[in-house]
Structure formats: C-alpha cells, structure tokens
Amino acid sequence: MIIARRIRYGLTQEQLAERMGTSVPAISRLESGQHRPNVETLEKLGHAFGEQFVLELEYEKATDTLTVPPADIQPAAPVDENTSGRISFNQFMPYILGALGLALLVGGILYYSLSGRGSDRPRRRRRPREPREDASNSVYCPQCGARAKPGDHFCRVCGTRLTKKG
Length: 166
Ligand SMILES: [Zn+2]
Prior knowledge:
Layout: H1 2-8, H2 13-20, H3 24-32, H4 39-49, H5 89-118, H6 121-125, E1 139-140, E2 147-148
Antiparallel strand pairs: 1-2
The protein binds zinc ion.
C-alpha cells in the first residue's frame, strides 16, 4: 500500500524518507511490512502524501459469546394509534385544518375590508329601494326605465310593451 502510493506520487524512498523525517531503511522496513507503522508514522505518511489516512481498527474476540446480554426491546403493549409517544399525522390534522381555515378566514376578511374600502362602487350601484314594493314582482320599462305596476302589459309612461322578468 505504501509502495503503491509512493509510486503514484512519483516519490523515491529517499524523498519519502526526507519528507517524513526518517531514514531510507525505515521506509523499506515499512514497505516490506517488517515494521508495522504506528499512528504517528501513519500521520507522517499522510502528511508526506498530502492526504489523510483513514485508520481501520481491528480487534479479535476471544469468544463468540456476547459480554452484554441482548436488551429486551419488546414493547410492553402492542403499538397502535393510541400508544403514547407515537406521533401520527392524523393527530395533527385538526390543527393543520384549523390553521388553514383561520388563514382563509383572515384572508377573506382582509380582502372584503380592502375591496370595500377601496371603492364605493357597491354603494353607487345600489338603488334607493321604494317602500313596500315586492322587488321580484316589479317590472321596469325597457325603453324609459319607468317602473310599471304588477299586471301592466304596457308602460304607463311611453307605451312600450313590457317583458316581464322571470
Ligand atoms: Zn316606458
């Protein structure tokens, strides 16, 4: 591994030894595997190659038995919707819907008040209502606009034939 890396970086044993502040025989011992590098040496190697070594640690087990017995993680009660600690989307649905409704309500009020205040169009369009008249029954002359009485077929003002609405 060290050889491959040294060759990849185009370094001679001398150059690597110089970079690591060690001797050429030490490098060859490392490369042949006679000398197992300690962490400090690996760090120097990393600096020399301009990269970091990821140290993989191994350990050997004397026996296959676990020193700690496996913990019992079975739930005390079957997990369902009512289990405490369980968070479900359904629980928050009413709040989400409530917030949405509130937002729509506030938006509607804002829109209504803004549009009402912004112009007096609705007021201008509204006609003064004549007292005690059934609005659904009233007929207006299409020609002069005069209001005819219920049952009239012709305008009392201009004589135009009336067409009843509805
Ligand atoms: Zn008329």
